[in-house]
Amino acid sequence: QLSERLQAVSRHVPRGAKLADIGSDHAYLPVYLLEHGVIERAIAGEINDGPLLSAMENIQANGFTDHIQVKKGSGLAVLLNETDIDTVTIAGMGGPLITAILNDGQEHLSTIKRLILQPNVAADRIRQWLYSEGWDLISEEILEEEGHIYEILVAEPGTGTAAYSNVESEFKKELWLGPILIQEKHSAFQKKWKWEYEQLKRIEESLNEAKDKNTVSERLADVDQKITWLKEVFHYE
Ligand code: SAM
């Protein structure tokens, strides 16, 4: 049984897609998508030998060796000399690592029509990159599974600005929280940010107690800004 998290990722993969799943580990996602007749073929990219082997074994066990090719390599480098791949999934990593993979492999993204990214933390880093590089967010999702909250960002080539409200004062807040998630206010979204709010209040308190105010002033301003944004969005007291 595929995790809820990866099932949610799978629902954003277009029918007939030719997929590259980067950091595929056991290749659970491409195997599931092929089993359900969603994709035509896939590359399962892996940097490490252990997960690479697990991917090979799982693909073989499911009889998909003709349709899922396992490639060893870092990030999008596995797309070298591949001309038909149109969809990329990168799931289960931190936002900074996903952003680095996208940024380092930009030359391999020219044929890609959709990115489906599932950061475990720091989704804002990815949003910033997508915005700067002209990828429009077309969908955002948030879900909770076994006590963890996950975000899914789906992007397609465009101007980068599409999902944002175009109100300058709102931009950084939307980037941080997610321009689509902020509209929907899903229960997992409320839970995540309530927890973050409590953390920020605690940090604010300890920064306020610091003896040397100069050394903490920048950090305090950042924390205060975030507290203000969360109050605006959730109307906390
Ligand atoms: N994508 C699967 C999922 O969502 O369940 C596996 C996530 S697992 C936590 C992260 C995988 O990414 C590991 O198998 C790791 O070896 C691989 N990985 C980490 N950095 C990578 C990179 N730069 N290129 C390719 N794979 C990478």
TrEMBL record:
Pfam family, one: TrmK
Lineage summary: Bacteria, Bacillati, Bacillota, Bacilli, Bacillales
Cross-referenced PANTHER family: TRNA (ADENINE(22)-N(1))-METHYLTRANSFERASE
GO BP, one annotated term: methylation
Family matches, as SUPFAM superfamilies: S-adenosyl-L-methionine-dependent methyltransferases
Family matches, as Gene3D superfamilies: 1.10.287.1890, Vaccinia Virus protein VP39
Name of the protein this chain belongs to: tRNA (Adenine-N(1)-)-methyltransferase TrmK
Keyword line: Methyltransferase, Transferase
UniProt keyword Plastid present: no
An MF annotation (GO) of this entry: tRNA (adenine(22)-N1)-methyltransferase activity
InterPro entries in alphabetical order: SAM-dependent_MTases_sf, TrmK
